[in-house]
Amino acid sequence: MQERISKFFVIEMILRFLKQLKKTIKNKSAVEGSICETYIAYEINTFSQHYFELDVHCTSRRPRKNDEVVNDLSKPPFSIFNYPGRFHGRPRVCLLNPEERKVAHTYVLRNCPEVGPYLEMFVGYLKHEGHSSDEIDQGIEMFFADWFKLYVQTRENAVTDPLLQDLAWGPSNKATSWPAYMVNGYNFHTFVHGQGRATINSGICVRGSDSNDPSYDFMVF
Question: Where is the DUF4218 domain positioned along the sequence (predicted)?
Fold first, then answer.
């Protein structure tokens, strides 16, 4: 599956490059010459930029289109909530059912570095009881969120960090979704929002717990 995804993105990059070349055609009677002339000018421009002073603004130092460099100090210091990005489009408010809420809660806990020591503790309990790796993965998905909440709320465990206590309660039942989100220099669309567009930005591959087995990976649209 990973090989198919790689081929898909290579083809997408080639199509984008051909689209850029098509825009450079000035003389339709000499298509190849127009493309070569523009490409040589682009190479000269790119090469000469290496000799500019650092304070000179040029295309190679221009921030990418979807980059976000503004940090919101009002956000909690946990790294999972501090990725610079922004959403756009018309928001839609929906209610999460118990299964969706649990999946969202577990995903945040598994990808939050500050919760990592507690996840290792939970996995250690399961290994001590003799569970296999598949059973441990299922146990994390089904029981870790509830176990973490109970562990944090137990006074004897002395978990005093208010942010960890908030994480233990989980997300709200009310969720707001947007059709597009810009993060890490990329612009992600929902599958419905991307229909009829020239490019496809709706595919996200979530790596599985076993990085050596691509069958554990999950493709989200």
Answer: 15-66
